[in-house]
Amino acid sequence: MKPDQIELLTTTGAPTLHPDGTRLVVAATRPDLRADSYVGQLWEITLDGGSPRRRRLTRGFRDTAPRYSPDGGLLLFLRAAPGGKPQLFAVRASGGEPVQVTDQPLGVSGFDISPDSQRVVFAARVPEHGRYGTLDGVGAGLEDPRLVTQYKYRMNGLGYVTDKRSQLFTVAVPDLDAEPFVAAVGRLKQPHADGPGALEDEGAVPRATRLTTADADHAEPAFSADGDRIFFTAALRPDADSTLVTDVHSIALDGGDPRQLTNQGGDTRLGCGAPRPSADGASLFFLASDLSPSGLDFVARNTALYVLPLEDPQGVRRLTDPETIDFGDVQEITPDGPDSVLVFNRSRGMGELLRVSTDGVSETLVTGPTVVTGAASTGSTVVVSYTDPSTSGDVAVVEGGSLRTLSDFSAALRADTRVGELQERTYSAPDGTPVHGWVVLPEGEGPHPVLLVIHGGPFAQYGWGYFDEAQVYAAAGYAVLLCNPRGASGYGQAHARVIKEAMGTVDLDDVLAYVDGALADFDGLDRERLGVMGGSYGGYLTAWTIANDHRFQAAIVERGYLDPPSFVGSSDIGWFFSEAYTGTDPEHVAGQNPFAKIADVRTPAFVIHSEEDLRCPIEQAQRYYTALKKQGVETEMLVFPGETHELSRSGSPWHRRQRFDHILRWWARYLPTTANPSVTAAG
């Protein structure tokens, strides 16, 4: 894959199944370099037993998150215009012209449809008056100052959050057979014949009713099985600003009778999410991680599935073992039958699909070299969206434990690029611990220069899904090493928690052992030409590696966690993250701090960062780059305006292409290949 081929990376969202099981709808989205944005529409795929038929159902700029109404008559989804925010739209299930349902100034996020298909509950951020364009002529630079009194006042990708809290609203599903609404223009509307005064001009969308007002983010709304209440998640406790505890709550349809359903007693404190009622209405499923009595012990805590009897919330039960099962990547729950749900387990690079019942019986529906990213079910039919080593996104039906693919959204990717094979390997660390991962080889016999690419997190994992980074580097002539060292997810909590207050110890041993193992295993690798790179925690471990090991010819340190003490006050998560991972004793922290060992670095290092990164703020990169330059280490710094911590995954398509171009330019300078020659060699 070449950098200019990122437009071939079509991804699929979670599918929605029609209640009669005959068809599904899925959103297919891709980067578009000409629009410098992400574009996509909804596609309908038939499931009639023969060859699946696919048709484009909508033609919006970016249409996502489709959901059939329970009665099957309507399809609701989110639509964003160029430069605009996503709004809720409705269209007949058979197709037609979509009707806009919301007009929220900052857009709509999650939504759910009532069991009778008459109402929608949705979450939307409500801007404080005078901010975010709510006052004509007052831009961001002229807004009033912000008085900060909380830890949780910013979030990467969102900026300030206390002045635009996410609240819940309900709105009636529009009658698509009614006359279209035409707003009054130029004069006041006439009063109702039976009303006391003039009508208020409501605009071109139905009026929404706001349900929540608390100074907290309300998210993940879901109707109860009888439609009488709404479940949601929020941190509403008095200590919400100093812990990571989040509860599941419920409210009546008018916003009254609020009830807290979780964390009602005992020492266990949970971070809860994804509430979904059972079909019979007796129970509520939800996901949660155990944060210990402090409410802050988040390090390598696997996400488990819980069930709560609605008549007795004190009877909450954990259904899955968090030591061996983790629902932390795709934190969604899909109802499946009267008393079971579908959930997504991350394990050794796989994204498995599990069915779990209220009595804790678990059945694995999909496993193997695949990452399931979304699912839906109706009756005995289960469909999924997924990615695998040669698929950026497609849709399949689950049949007897295997997948029958229904779409070909990744056909152009496979046809127009060489997809490097993921060769699974496990090598031993010095203490005998197995280190699992993959090797991606370029074309030809070699010897090939080697790039060790370290993932972020650290509680994350490389896996079997299509990875554009590995494919771009392999196409440029590099052998790419991807491994999951200790600290990574997918191998149990003990494997991941071992680096708590011990960063840069066994995790460094593991990545270097993987390099040694691959060099001994593959004859075509050039042991004299090695590079190392990574982002976020991967940037941390890259910086730590080149301060402690000097075998690499060059490095790339991207959006790095580089100085734990300054991170505490500058990052959106700094107030809890650093101390949990590195401890609080200054001397002990210094023993895990790349900046404290920067004098030992002599490897040329390319520093990449985004200006609006609040997770690993740009000061981390600026100080690291300046220190390298002052001590004479060859270095450059690439700064992306307008981008956040998510640049490499969801940043501007043009910036993503430019990022790849600069990365290959750096490697061409220190590790040139025939496919990626140095400027001098290229003439």
Overall mean pLDDT stands at: 94
* Number of DSSP helical runs: 12
Spatial strand arrangement across the major sheet = 32-33-35-34-36-37-38-39
The low-pLDDT segments are 183-202
Largest sheet: 8 strands, mixed
User: Which outline best applies?
Assistant: globular
Distance between the termini: 24 Å
| Number of extended strands | 39
Q: What is the oligomer described by this structure?
A: single chain
Helix content: 10-25%
Helix/strand-derived class? alpha+beta
Rg on CA atoms, Å: 26 Å
> How much β-strand is present in the residues?
25-35%
Topology readout:
Blueprint: E1 11-12, E2 16-17, E3 23-32, E4 37-46, E5 54-56, E6 62-68, E7 74-80, E8 87-92, E9 99-100, E10 108-113, E11 119-125, E12 154-155, E13 159-160, E14 166-172, E15 209-210, E16 219-223, E17 229-234, E18 247-252, E19 259-260, E20 270-277, E21 283-290, E22 304-309, E23 317-318, E24 334-335, E25 340-347, E26 350-357, E27 362-366, E28 371-378, E29 381-388, E30 391-399, E31 402-405, H1 411-416, E32 422-428, E33 434-440, E34 448-454, H2 468-475, E35 479-484, H3 493-497, H4 506-521, E36 525-535, H5 537-548, E37 554-558, H6 564-570, H7 574-582, H8 586-590, E38 605-610, H9 618-630, E39 635-640, H10 647-650, H11 653-670, H12 679-682
Parallel strand pairs: 34-35, 34-36, 36-37, 37-38, 38-39
Antiparallel strand pairs: 1-3, 2-3, 3-4, 4-5, 6-7, 7-8, 8-9, 10-11, 11-14, 12-13, 14-15, 16-17, 17-18, 18-19, 20-21, 21-22, 22-23, 24-25, 25-26, 26-27, 28-29, 29-30, 30-31, 32-33, 33-35
Helix pairs in contact: 6-7
